[in-house]
Amino acid sequence: MEQTRSTPQTESTGGIQGNVRPRRISVAPMMDWTDRRCRTFHRSLSRHTWLYTEMVTTGALLHGDVPRHLDFDAAEHPVALQLGGSEPADLAQAARLGEQWGYKEINLNCGCPSERVQRGAFGACLMAEPQLVADCVKAMRDAVDVPVTVKHRIGIDKVEHYDFVRDFVGTVAEAGCETFIVHARNAILKGLSPKENREIPPLRYEVAYSLKKEFPNLEILINGGITSYDEIDTHLQYVDGVMLGRQAYHDPYILAEIDNCYYGADTPAPLRQDAESAMQSYIGDLVEQGGYMGSVTRHMLGLHRGIHGGRGWRRVLSDARRMNAAKTRADVDALFEEARSHLRPDLREAA
């Protein structure tokens, strides 16, 4: 997807507009996808897009391997930690860990509809208990100095009236939450899979717009089904920020002009081959430390989406057997060279 916008002509500070909200554009937390390898790749395409971790449960942090869940590279910043949980004390302790590990924001998941999450009494089902969410937010805010935010749906099951989500936001805002990320669909708690919950409930963007109108002092971000710069531009007329989801994963080059178009950056947008070159070097370091090449390339497979030869490029870099066999930088370089041989000449070398 090739998208072009002119760079905003306003005074900038350090190459970035001084008046731009840091969360103006973000990439959603996505289970099994937005891990540290994915975030490193996204950062090669956009320096300023706000990134989120996968959801990490309080139990995983309080009773599990903390470094495995929280370790990340400072180059990923700005990056936020999304937590799943419903016990205020546990969330406060987990948030404190997140702050100690260097995350810039702690986000509470009130939108995931999966049965596993429901069994833990958190995620989207928390929308039915706004006072509990407020208590959780207060406990986390008392524990950390970084912002505490909430990501939520606009309703659950057949509850579609605006008053429901308005009262939820109002109650949680009273506890000090100033930023709400609104996935503009209902969550159907029974009968739909998480995938179906991202596709079947209708999008109602106007609900998020109404929340911003009713709570002008809150930061309202919108999420759900957003696929183009034209759509981003439309939403930014009504809300403070836009969160991209699966579009950013399947067609990651959409991120390449975000810095110029929405943050006022005065540096050139990265080319596909430059992002690929940066990741090739990163993967070379990783495998020489004993890491698995495929843990990174699986997130990169959309880089040449829609480009002639992209299918052959993907085929080489998605071969699990060959990814597993790559043990040296030379192995990595050889695989990338073979992958690029399928592309047109101008995409085969970094600019």
Q: Can you tell me about this structure?
A:
The protein contains 17 helices and ten strands. The chain has 351 residues and is of the alpha/beta class. The protein has two domains: 19-262, TIM Barrel (Alpha-Beta Barrel), CATH 3.20.20.70; 272-344. Helix 1 links the parallel strand 3 and strand 4. The longest helix is centred in the C-terminal third of the chain and has 17 residues, at 272-288.
Describe the SSE topology:
Layout: E1 12-13, E2 16-17, E3 25-27, H1 36-45, E4 50-57, H2 58-63, H3 66-70, E5 79-84, H4 88-100, E6 106-110, H5 115-119, H6 130-143, E7 148-156, H7 162-174, E8 179-187, H8 194-197, H9 205-214, E9 219-223, H10 229-235, E10 241-244, H11 246-250, H12 258-262, H13 272-288, H14 294-300, H15 310-317, H16 320-325, H17 329-340
Parallel strand pairs: 3-4, 3-10, 4-5, 5-6, 6-7, 7-8, 8-9, 9-10
Antiparallel strand pairs: 1-2
